[in-house]
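Quick illustration for those who missed Monday's session on complexes.
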Amino acid sequence: MAIIMDGIELRNRILNDLQIRTENMAIKPKLIAILVGDDMASKIYVRNKEKYASVAGIETQIIRMPNETDTKTIVEKIHELNSDKSVSGILVQLPLPKHIDTHVVLNAVDVNKDVDGFTDANVGKMYGAGKEFITPCTPRGILALLNAYDIDIAGKNAVVIGRSNIVGKPMAQMLMMQNATVTICHSKTKNISDFTRKADIVIAATGKIKITGDMLKTGCVLIDVGMQRDEKGKLCGDADFDSCSQVAGFITPVPGGVGPMTIAGLMMNLVDLAQ
Ligand code: GUN
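Prediction with guanine bound:
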């Protein structure tokens, strides 16, 4: 039976540590979250970010814009926030409504306030030889969780399932930076089990491909980034928890695993930027 990795407990510990750091800062760190439209999930995520920021001694301001807002208006708002010295970090909650050019909006954020690490300038540093860069919140939180459970990464076979800019791609890069041998699988990969059965660490982040116990190597670490509702309306991840927890050595629950660690990753990024 796998050890269940407790993201809530670790998030709380990280927020307490951050609170001690922010208490001693001359200027209180400030996070701006831009929320465009009325996507229900995004509203909940942003409200959660605000709630846990305050635990870490971070002030938050949510800027809400109607669904009809155009790209130019959002970009102008971001430019204004870029030059506001009281703002430490700017987050644009994704997904944006379809008519908005997400790439243009994300790249309007000053790289020094890019708390998500989504600007081309920041991404370029992470994939190139840049020294100081922000690592996206979910992968940063996942690495903190692996670290808290003393899981070695160097030399391990890691399989990342999913290739999004938010999780899959940065996760693969960050695991490689820690000397893992990384394979990226996705919706077009044939016979995913051929890869996952050899993996010491599996990061499941598609929201589509279901992971079952028979796909895993005994004793592996399974990190479940998925967040859906099953046919009974209950929150679940990409993994079939019952079968996977019989085979894996470590597993993250949904909820209570990666979700809280994403919040912790965001707050660590913000305090780093503020300092
Ligand atoms: N939507 C889903 N995940 C994220 C994230 O990490 N950051 C932002 N800004 N939006 C998201």
